[in-house]
Amino acid sequence: MNIETLLPRSPTTDGPGGIWRWRDILPLPDSIVPVSLGEGNTPLLRSRAHPDLTLFIKDETRNPTGSHKDRPLALAAGDAVATGARVMAVVSAGSTGLSNAAYAARAGLASVAIMEAGAPDSRVAPLAA
Questions:
Q1: Strand extents, DSSP E, 7-129
Q2: Which of 20, 28, 40, 45 is the most buried (most CB within 10 A)?
Q3: For the ranges 30-44, 82-96, 115-129, which has the lowest average pLDDT?
Q4: How far is CA 127 from CA 87, 101, 113, in A?
């Protein structure tokens, strides 16, 4: 079965592609600006762990930062640009911060990742001068 047969409309073929090809069926404001690093279009793989089940796994590690967080952060960056924001901020000591930094940079915005006290030193980068 093809996922497109279950949807009310087909994805668009114009524009940046990736998740943005689904823009017409996503609950997004018209003002949102596509910001993309090529996220989406990750493969759907059949699980070999349970051969008795029809189970598929979406391989989100193939997104630009290796995280499933790339999809929502691409949308957040587009909304940030559309609303005139200058900074994208998240609370994270991991992949959300990394994805936020990548999409903020693509959108020409500053990025801030707020971490709780006691975050491992390996997760803390020195502030840029």
A1: 44-46, 56-58, 87-91, 110-114
A2: 20
A3: 115-129
A4: 16, 13, 11
* Closest to 13 (Cα-Cα) out of 41, 54, 47, 49: 41
| Chain-centre distance for alpha carbon 83 | 19
Residue type, 124: V
Per-residue pLDDT tens digits for 23-65? 888 888 889 989 999 998 888 898 899 889 888 888 999 999 9
- What is the token pair recorded at 38? 């090529």
Rg (CA), the chain: 17
What is the distance of C-alpha 54 from the center of its chain? 27
Give pTM, 2 decimals.
Answer: 0.81
82: alpha, beta or left? (left if phi > 0; alpha if psi -120 to 50):
alpha
Distance CA 9, CA 13 (A): 12
